[in-house]
């Protein structure tokens, strides 16, 4: 998605194109075309600096994608190639870090000094604002919450190869794994009858809200694992607010009311009740808004209300 975002974080226009292939040149051309179309539709006479949120390990100083498993890219100059086509400065950051910046600037983290954002989708990504600074890490990998282990001996095998990663247990795919893990106890379950290839996490959540026994059993296991990971984030980062974004977070209060008390029990070295767990305010727009903030500020820079 290409979007034109104003200084208040409002999307004025968006241009969305389904990417049918992941070849580097094709993606670069599609980005350039959509940016031009979005700017023209929004009445922008000339292009401003551009921000791009991309999955993978990104070097924001050069705009290069070091590695993107989604696109199977290795060391590609995404920022430089888009800049050649558009003729304006282009900044590139990891998509989850951009989403964190967007939420911190205009969403649920606005005004906080210590903030964490987690995206609960197919996997789990995120970002950290510590003492007003967006943490990037030594090799730009800070915020990969999904790959700390919460069930190293009895968990699901993660796509990264480890056992029991937070992502394997508490992402949208993790919820589905819990459904199948408890399914032998529900041989007549209407939840999975003939639906294995089509079942999604939202359907499981809706079934749990409706009181389906199979869905509730899977949801309970899922919430236990989500609470474990969030309690670890509190121990690692000690944020004022943890914002949960991504598809699973659409469960809203149904999820928050279940997970908050479990996190409180598991929180030890940090005073209980000092971290608020909320759903992200910007939804799927957080990444685009954060990328625009990055472009406007000249980098992945967090600012509190007083800075």
Give a written overview of the molecule.
It is built from 9 helices and 12 strands. With 307 residues, it is α/β, with parallel strands linked by helices. It has 2 domains: 93 residues, 2-Layer Sandwich (Nucleotidyltransferase, domain 5), CATH 3.30.420; 173 residues, Nucleotidyltransferase, domain 5, CATH 3.30.420.40. The strands form 4 sheets. Strands 10-9-8-11-12 form a 5-stranded mixed β-sheet, sandwiched between helices. A 3-stranded antiparallel β-sheet has the order 4-5-6, with helices on one face. Strands 1-2 form a two-stranded antiparallel sheet. The longest helix is centred in the C-terminal third of the chain and has 25 residues. It is globular. The protein starts with a strand and ends in a 10-residue tail after the last helix.
């Amino acid at each position: 998605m290409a979007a034109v975002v104003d200084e208040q974080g409002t999307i004025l226009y968006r241009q969305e194109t389904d990417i049918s292939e992941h070849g580097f040149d094709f993606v670069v051309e599609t980005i350039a075309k959509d940016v031009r179309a979005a700017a023209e539709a929004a009445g922008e006479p000339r292009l401003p600096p551009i921000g791009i949120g991309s999955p993978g390990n990104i070097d924001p100083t050069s705009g290069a994608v070091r590695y993107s498993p989604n696109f199977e890219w290795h060391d590609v100059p995404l920022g430089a190639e888009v800049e050649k086509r558009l003729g304006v400065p282009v900044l590139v950051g990891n998509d989850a870090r951009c989403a964190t910046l967007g939420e911190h600037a205009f969403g649920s983290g606005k005004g906080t000094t210590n903030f964490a954002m987690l995206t609960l989708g197919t996997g789990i990504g995120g970002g950290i604002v510590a003492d007003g600074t967006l943490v990037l890490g030594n090799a730009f990998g800070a915020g990969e919450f999904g790959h700390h282990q919460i069930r190293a001996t009895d968990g699901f095998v993660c796509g990264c190869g480890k056992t029991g990663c937070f992502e394997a247990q508490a992402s949208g795919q993790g919820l589905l794994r819990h459904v199948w893990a408890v399914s032998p106890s529900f041989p007549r379950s209407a939840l999975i009858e003939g639906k294995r290839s089509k079942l999604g996490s939202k359907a499981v959540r809706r079934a749990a809200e409706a009181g389906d026994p199979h869905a509730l059993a899977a949801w309970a296991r899922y919430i236990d694992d989500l609470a474990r990971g969030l309690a670890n984030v509190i121990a690692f980062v000690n944020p004022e607010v943890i914002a949960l974004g991504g598809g699973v977070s659409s469960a809203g209060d149904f999820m928050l009311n279940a997970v908050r008390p479990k996190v409180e029990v598991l929180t030890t070295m940090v005073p209980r009740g000092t971290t608020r767990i909320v759903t992200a305010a910007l939804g799927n727009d957080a990444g685009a808004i954060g990328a625009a903030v990055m472009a406007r500020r000249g980098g992945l820079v967090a600012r509190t209300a007083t800075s």
